[in-house]
Every structure is written in structure tokens, then in C-alpha cells.
Write a structure and sequence with these properties.
- It is a single chain.
- This protein has eleven helices and eight strands.
- By secondary structure, it is an alpha/beta fold.
- It has two domains: 8-227 and 302-315, Spore Coat Polysaccharide Biosynthesis Protein SpsA, Chain A; 229-299.
- Strands 7-5-6-4-1-2-3-8 form an eight-stranded mixed beta sheet, sandwiched between helices.
């Protein structure tokens, strides 16, 4: 007999988090138990350690724990998307499994949802003393830039720690975009939303998997997936630098006629070449980023491949490859 639909689902992407699986599952079970039926959905994002084995062990001992495993590492946003498609609850909470998203905040998320918010987002408190100054400053600058060029406003410190109503989850699951920046996408949908501040929790095991490269990739996705304004900025940049080139031309002519001893040509030519060359490379880079994303959309490849779920384990029919359900 099929398990009843849970009231609450918690989706947890995991990449090389073997030491955090058991503790986060136990912590969530203790917090969620008073709120009715719940399920915990782990998404193994192609871990190279024993994370999947730890998830299997947890699922074998608790029917409330479900999971899916990717064939390789497809990235955090793909894992969130897969988890949303796998979750069945009336309310779905997405969060990291490393305790930096504190599970103790969940009762506040549920209270806001029951008060009528269909989307409950969270934002880190900028006053955290333990957050590195460089990361805090660059994060604030990025969100201000994204706010200036994006189609929706994302508050500084926003995180992929949020609660989504079932209606919102079904809407997100119905979208076919290859590149998804979830914290911007849920705001774009326009459903009733509220925000809750939190202080970053302490990681129990392991180190953060967000390297500089991953953060840059996420930042570029956030910009390119939800705004075309960089293309327009590229046009204005090209026009501005063309105007600067014209001023250099005027300066060169004036120097030739009115400044004795001027070595004509060399300085202005080199300056013009450097400025216009940099502008062309920048504009081509922006256009290339969008063209590459158009190519991914045109190919229509799935954003992830599932290798195994808890249902496969129960039936003993684990298959090496499985396409995600659309």
C-alpha cells in the first residue's frame, strides 16, 4: 500500500557530505515530528565519497527518508530541481545538509506558510561576525548588481533555503528551462512571499563545497538566466567607447596643430586599439554566454540523469541510467 502524502517534504542536496547525513536526518526528524507527516528527500549529486552509502543506510532504517542519486555531479541547482520533482509534500523545504542552513528555523518557515505565504525565503544576517569580510562584501556587491539588471529583486544574503507551497512546486516543475537559478525564479513567479532572516549555522563535518569557480558559475547563471539587460549594456558600452574613440580622434588632431613637438599618431592609435579591443572582447564574451545557453536549451538534454532512487532499492531493480520525469 502506497505511503500517504506527507504534509511536509524537506529536500537536501548532498555532495560529499558523508559525515552530515545521519546527524541532519536525526535533527530534522526531531523538529518535524510535531508538525504531522513528513519526508526527508536526499539528492546525492554525484558524490565521490560514501555519501550515497550513508543515505542508503539512513533510508533503510527510516521509511520517512527517500532519496535519488545522480550518475555524476550535475550541480547544486540541478539537485534542487530534482528534489522538487521527487518531493510529495503540501509544503516543500529546500536546504543544505551541512547545518549552515539551521534546521531550527523550520518552525518559523512553517508558521509563515500557515499564515498565508506561498513562498517563504530566507536571507543571511549581514551582521554575522564569522562570515569572511571579502565574501560578505562581494556578495553584497553581486546582489546590488543583480538587483540593478535583473527582472526581480533579490535581497542581499538570500539563500537557497526556502519553503514552497505545493502550487509553487508544481509550477516550478512545469518549467522546461535548462538553467535555473531557484532563488530568483521563485520571486519571478509572483506568488505571495515573505522573508525571514537567519544566522548561518556551524558546519559539523567537512568543508564547504562552494569553491570560487562554483560561486562564479552560480553568479553568471543568476545573471544570464533571469535578465537580458547585459546584452543591452553591451550595446551602451560599445556606444560609449565609440564616443571615447571619437574624443581621442579630436585630441589627436588638436595636438597635431596646437602642441609643439607632439609625436603624432602613436599614443592615440595605441590607446584607441586597446580601448576598442577590450570593448569588442567584452561584448563578444557577453553574447557568447547567451549563445551558449541558447544552444543548451535547443539541445533539450535533461538537466540531470538519475541512477537510483529508494523505490529502485526496494524493488531490487536498480538501473544504471534513468531519465528524469518531466
Amino acid at each position: 500500500m502506497a505511503n500517504p502524502v506527507p504534509d511536509i517534504s524537506v529536500v537536501l542536496p548532498a555532495h560529499n557530505e558523508v559525515g552530515n547525513i545521519g546527524p541532519i536526518a536525526a535533527a530534522l526528524a526531531g523538529i518535524l515530528k510535531p508538525f504531522g507527516r513528513f519526508e526527508i528527500v536526499f539528492v546525492d549529486d554525484g558524490s565521490s565519497d560514501a555519501t550515497l552509502a550513508a543515505i542508503r543506510t539512513a533510508a533503510a532504517g527510516d521509511p520517512a527518508i527517500r532519496y535519488l542519486s545522480f550518475t555524476r555531479n550535475f550541480g547544486h541547482q540541478a539537485a534542487l530541481r530534482a528534489g522538487l520533482r521527487h518531493a510529495r509534500g503540501h509544503a516543500v523545504i529546500v536546504m543544505d545538509c551541512d547545518f549552515e542552513h539551521p534546521p531550527e528555523l523550520i518552525p518559523q518557515l512553517l508558521a509563515a506558510w500557515r499564515d498565508g505565504a506561498m513562498i517563504v525565503v530566507t536571507r543571511r544576517d549581514d551582521g554575522e561576525a564569522d562570515l569572511p569580510a571579502v565574501k560578505r562584501v562581494t556578495s553584497r556587491m553581486y546582489y546590488r548588481f543583480l538587483d540593478a539588471i535583473g527582472d526581480v529583486r533579490i535581497e542581499p544574503g538570500s539563500a537557497d533555503y526556502m519553503l514552497l507551497d505545493r502550487t509553487v512546486v508544481d509550477t516550478v516543475n512545469g518549467l522546461q528551462d535548462q538553467d535555473v537559478f531557484l532563488r530568483a525564479l521563485v520571486r519571478w513567479l509572483g506568488f505571495p512571499m515573505t522573508s525571514i532572516a537567519f544566522s548561518r549555522g556551524a558546519r559539523i563535518h567537512g568543508d564547504s563545497k562552494y569553491t570560487l569557480k562554483r560561486m562564479i558559475d552560480l553568479a553568471v547563471t543568476g545573471i544570464a538566466a533571469h535578465s537580458v539587460r547585459p546584452l543591452r549594456l553591451a550595446i551602451w558600452l560599445a556606444l560609449g567607447l565609440a564616443a571615447l574613440g571619437f574624443l581621442l580622434l579630436v585630441y589627436t588632431v588638436a595636438s597635431y596643430f596646437f602642441v609643439p613637438g607632439t609625436i603624432t599618431g602613436w599614443t592615440s592609435v595605441m590607446a584607441t586599439i586597446a580601448i576598442l579591443g577590450a570593448a569588442q572582447l567584452l561584448v563578444l564574451g557577453i553574447i557568447g554566454e547567451y549563445v551558449g545557453r541558447i544552444l543548451r536549451e535547443a539541445r533539450g538534454r535533461p538537466p540531470y540523469i538519475i541512477a537510483e532512487t529508494e523505490a529502485d532499492r526496494e524493488r531490487g531493480t536498480v538501473t544504471p541510467l534513468k531519465q528524469p520525469a518531466e
